[in-house]
Write a structure and sequence with these properties.
Elements: E1 7-8, H1 9-16, H2 20-28, E2 36-37, E3 43-45, H3 47-61, H4 66-73, H5 79-110, H6 114-124, H7 128-142, H8 152-161, H9 172-186, H10 188-204, H11 217-231, H12 241-255, H13 261-274, H14 277-290, H15 299-313
Helix pairs in contact: 5-6, 5-9, 6-9, 9-14, 11-12, 11-15, 13-15
């Protein structure tokens, strides 16, 4: 019967597709053992050696080490246990490779200096706790206690909306977005600009928590001006006059001020503060990291409104 047949090492090599040298190596390591030897000392293997060597070849192609393979073939551990262990190890390796590729792709797009390359790598490989401390430091600088305890809850909500949460298994795009956002949050000039914007937002907040919050004038501007921008109305055209009038009236109501030249100057200042491409970029990156829908671009609306307000202020 075939189960009683013994094969010389050359025949075993032909049947398994392995080289004689490889089979001899596995045999010397105890992974597959000869069933018998000829009087001249040549090894002969049973039919079970064919199945064992086929398994060995598969496990080697999957990257398992010889000691692990021997434990499997000796039934010290099950294939399922080994597969789960090595799948977890591969997940870790994939995560590391994804981080490395994201850094390299970012570097390829920027042509960084050696120092910038090192900083990008450090930012990409921060632990979750280190990432959280970096973000907390940025937000703590921006949202300090300058505006009183009555604004703590409002600031907490804004902080949450500005907090990146990189997932456990981020995509390369999320890693690259995290590196750029982290660099942005470390920029002193950007921090100062965000602080000014927060100061303006705090000025719009009610004096007491019981008072309903006022609409943000930037949000009001987006709502009222987006249609004019989409329609191609020029900010210096007569068709823009009613749009600007509606905008200033709505902002005056929102903050409880008269719709006069003082209000118009204040609105110009508020929109100029918000007109920072880095601010818009921060929220674009935040959406990528957190898996949120991409925000509507704000720059076209603000630019249109600034032009329209300046033109009418000069008349």
């Amino acid at each position: 019967m075939d189960g009683d047949t013994l094969y010389p090492i050359g025949e075993l090599a032909r049947r398994t597709g392995l080289t004689v040298k490889a089979i001899r190596f596995y045999s010397d390591r105890g992974i597959v053992t000869p069933a018998d030897r000829t009087p001249a000392g040549y090894r002969r293997y049973g039919a079970d050696a064919i199945a064992r060597l086929a398994l060995v070849r598969t496990l080697r192609q999957l990257g398992l080490g010889l000691d692990t393979i021997r434990r499997v073939t000796d039934r010290e551990v099950t294939l399922g246990e080994v597969a789960a262990e090595h799948a977890a190890a591969l997940d870790a390796q994939i995560s590391i490779l994804r981080l490395r590729r994201a850094v390299l792709m970012t570097a390829a797009a920027r042509e960084p200096t050696a120092e910038e390359m090192e900083r990008m790598h450090q930012l990409a490989t921060l632990s979750e706790d280190q990432r959280r401390r970096l973000v907390d430091d940025f937000l703590s600088v921006v949202f300090d206690d300058r505006h009183g305890r009555e604004h703590v809850a409002a600031h907490a909500a804004i902080r949450r909306s500005m907090t990146p949460e990189l997932p456990d298994s981020p995509s390369e795009q999320q890693v690259a977005a995290w590196v750029e956002l982290a660099e942005l949050s470390l920029d002193a000039d950007f921090r100062a600009g965000v602080r000014r914007l927060v100061d303006d937002l705090a000025a719009d907040l009610p004096d007491t928590p019981a008072t309903p919050p006022r609409p943000d004038v930037v949000a009001v501007t987006r709502e009222l001006v987006a249609a004019a921008v989409a329609s191609g109305i020029a900010p210096d055209s007569p068709q823009a006059d009613p749009v600007v009038a509606t905008l200033t009236a709505a902002c005056a109501r929102a903050v409880g001020r008269p719709d006069d030249t003082t209000l118009h100057a204040w609105l110009l200042h508020r929109l100029e503060t918000a007109d920072d491409p880095r601010w818009n970029r921060y929220f674009d990156l935040l959406a990528v990291i957190n898996g949120w829908p991409a925000p509507e671009p704000l720059a076209p609306v603000i630019d249109w409104s600034l032009q329209a307000l300046r033109i009418r202020a000069a008349r």
